Amino acid sequence: MEIILSIILVFMIIGAIYALYARDLLSALISCGIVGYGLVICFLLLQAPDLAIVQIVVETITLIIMIAVILDSSREELKEKKVADPKLSHFNKWYVINAVLVIVCLLVLLYFFKEVTGTLDPLGKHLTRMSAAYVENAAEQTGSANLVTGVVFDFRGYDTLGEATILFTAVIGVLTILRVKGKK
Amino acid sequence: MTPIVKKVTQLVVGLIFLYGIYIITHGHLTPGGGFAGGAVIAGAFILLVLAYGSDVLKLRKREEDSSVVESTGILIFLALAIAALFIGTGIFFTNYLPKGIIGELISAGTIPLYNIAVGIEVAAALFTIFLALVIYKEEVLK
Which of A32, A85, A140, A171 is deepest in the core (most CB within 10 A)? Predict the structure, then answer.
């Protein structure tokens, strides 16, 4: 399973990089779609169908909206002339400092990743004390056969309340920004 | 849109709507829940708007309606949560209805009701955002 997961992740990375450098904005959007739908397959492989349903629907809706924007405005990228800055062209001490910092950070990260991956359980098998308690007792305590819904609406009810409020606030913000009457 | 798109939309949109309702009402039994089902229902409405054109006057009325429905959804959610203060143990957000048998459709106390409220809210919210964008485009960029 991890091999398939790695292949899909590589495809997603390629799609994301192509979306940055594509000349045609529509093809950039399609490669963004590769990233989103690849994520759907990753969720399915990692046994998270709840997230997969949400991701596939939301990805489709956002793609529809963005494609409508592209078709209405322009498919061409804005062309900017690159002006060669003479100060930046030759050797600069800040380049050396930046490069050294990046290499040091990468080495520190690599060290800690190696430490962590030695002690943790393999992918998908990791179970903390909290989630073990959830998995064992959720069905009796909440009465819900679906563990995710039991956690979302019973153990973590405040989170769901906040999430619903965030969506409500987002709609108010969109309606305020896109109002037409008051601006004239 | 072309007649083909309109006909296919006519045939498919009811099934999508039913599937969304199924996901919401079976949220405590099978994968899914309020958010996923609400997004599916919003997708059905968006498909209808995309296929059957954009008459701005009608759409503005729909936008007001869906905004009201969205506020109603979140109010139902809050009312269910606050009702727990007065019933049973008196703690905010407790599950005060009887839990029933695990695995049946009517079980798990208040969780299906929360699912329905969140489903209404999410569907109306996504549809309102879409309608706001469509109306803005039709009116300003004409």
Answer: A171
Assess contact for B67 and A175: CB atoms under 8 A: yes
Tell me what pLDDT residue A136 has.
81
**A35: which 2 tokens?**
């990233």
pLDDT, one tens digit per residue, over B17-66 is: 999 999 988 888 888 888 889 999 999 988 888 888 767 667 777 878 88
Q: Report, in angstroms and rounded to the nearest whole number, the Rg of chain B calculated over CA atoms.
A: 18
**pLDDT tens digits for A96-139?**
889 999 999 999 999 998 888 777 776 666 667 777 788 887 77
Confidence (pLDDT) at A183:
59
Best CA proximity match to B126, nearest among B46, B47, B64? B46
Q: Of B130, B67, B46, B77, whose CA–CA distance to A163 is shortest?
A: B77
The single-letter code of the amino acid at B23 is I
Strand partners, B100: none
Which residues in A lie closer than 8 A to residue B50 (C-beta atoms)? 64
Three-class secondary structure of residue B31 per DSSP = coil
Cβ of A167 and B121 within 8 Å? yes
Q: Report residue A127: phi and psi, to 5°.
A: -140, 115
Q: How many angstroms away from the CA of B106 is the closest CA of chain A? A: 10
CA of B103 vs chain A CAs: smallest distance (Å) = 5
Residue at A38: amino acid letter? G
Instruction: Please tell me chain A's helix, strand, coil percentages from 3-state DSSP, rounded to the nearest 5.
Output: 75, 0, 25
- Tell me which residue of B98, B101, B100, B102 sits closest to B88, measured CA to CA: B98
